[in-house]
Amino acid sequence: MSPIQATEEVVDIVSRLIQFDTSNTGVPETTVGEADCARWVQEQLAEVGYATEYVESGMPGRANVFARLEGADRQRGALLIHAHLDVVPAQAEDWSVHPFSGAIRDGYIWGRGAIDMKDMAGMALALARQFKRDGTVPPRDIVFAFLADEEAGGTLGSQWLVKNRPELFDGISEAVGEVGGFSLTVDRPDGTVRRLYLVETAEKGLAWMRLTCNATAGHGSFLHSDNAVTEIAAAVARIGAHRFPLVMTESVSEFLTALSEETGLDFSPETPDLETALFKIGNLARIVGATLRDTANPTMLSAGYKANVIPQQAEAVIDCRVLPGRQKEFEATIDELIGPNITREWITHLDAYETTFDGHLVDAMNDAVVAHDENGRTVPYMLSGGTDAKAFAKLGIRCFGFAPLQLPPELDFAALFHGVDERVPVESILFGTKVLEHFLHHC
Predict the structure, then answer these.
(1) Which residues does the UniProt record annotate as the domain Peptidase M20 dimerisation (predicted)?
(2) SS3 sequence, 200-268?
């Protein structure tokens, strides 16, 4: 009997991973399930002969699993394939199926984490098992890592591991993770279509800022010239209304150039109202448009404890996403907007990241895509959010997002991230597994 191939078990593996409720609330005491899921992953790896390492990152239950497959050239830098096992919470009453059922129906695998990112975790695990069973020797060492806490910035996951266990990443020169490799179907001038597979080469910085205003407390019936609520509300309104300048980074510029080449439309920086023009490519424009400029979105306000008391303090939280190379200018703008009576501090601050779209690994990605889709082409792009790549970049590891999926053109992929009825097409998983296999054979 021939060994089981990854495509024969990957759908069941993805479904099983979803059935572990690994909801990350952002509060360690209420985040559960990561350890159970990680132990199951560890068992699947050990079953086929891997020596695994189970690591808890900073707190009991924040579980990570590592396994290494030795390659032909041990002198080359190793390749890290990483996937996080935690997911954002889901309210079951809002869903068509239970979010942790892993249901397979209507051609989809349903559930929280289906695309963020138990699809990639399942593909990586299925291929790791196949390679071990087959005795596959890849071109260089491959390190498979299944990680905790990405959905809370990796504080008790990748960030902790990089700071406290850097030896786990010794010899790794490049890494591949989530939110890249998915297809965007565009119409060409000759009536044909091209599927662009977006490889993540950059991420905006992720920073959550707390604003605080201290003023004079007093009775609500008196006149007050220094009301903390008024000042913080005015500052928040100024920030929320501010439009940061359009900045063309290398990754975004290359993406827009490729988009123009394939569609015959003008997506150059000089295009009037470029953000609106981008909606010609569909719903993915929400992600791409957010990478044209810095953003600062107010998300939380807190002040007062009684209707007739002017509070001494008022606070706000701003979700800041900053383009590579823009941190200094961004902070200067924020300081102008908030004014002299308000202080700011970073609650979370993770740097932006960008690498170039070139080299052997990029060529291997494109070759793998084209081998399974003759109408495919890989292009770079920037993610408006963040991934565990932010942690690994601190070690000098060159990071990419490449979790290949060929998607139906009509599927609103962007809306599924953290959305209700998150799901991934079965055919997309099978396609992605084949592409990832080709890629790992030539990495």
Answers:
(1) 201-333
(2) EEEECEEEEEEEEEECCCEECCCCCCCCHHHHHHHHHHHHHHCCCCCCCCHHHHHHHHHHHHHHCCCCC
Per-residue pLDDT of 9-53, as tens digits, reads 999 999 999 999 999 998 988 888 999 999 999 999 999 999 999
- The total number of residues written for the chain in this structure: 443
Cα radius of gyration rounded to whole Å, the chain: 23
Q: How far apart are CA 293 and CA 249, in angstroms?
A: 10
Tokens representing residue 352 in the block: 């932006």
Name the pairing type of β-strands 52-56 and 182-187. unpaired
Neighbours of 191 (CB within 10 A): 6
Other Cβ atoms closer than 10 A to 425? 21
Structure confidence by residue, pLDDT tens digits, 146-186: 999 999 999 999 999 999 999 999 999 999 999 999 999 99
pTM: 0.94
Angstrom distances, CA of residue 163 to CA of 167, 220, 391: 10, 49, 9
Average of pLDDT values for 329-349? 95
Cβ atoms of 150 and 118 within 8 Å: the answer is: no
Task: Please list the residues that pair with 344 across neighbouring strands.
Answer: 211
Q: List, in sequence order, every residue forming a beta bridge with 209; answer none if it has no partner.
A: 318, 346
Residue pair 118/84 in contact (Cβ under 8 Å)? The answer is no
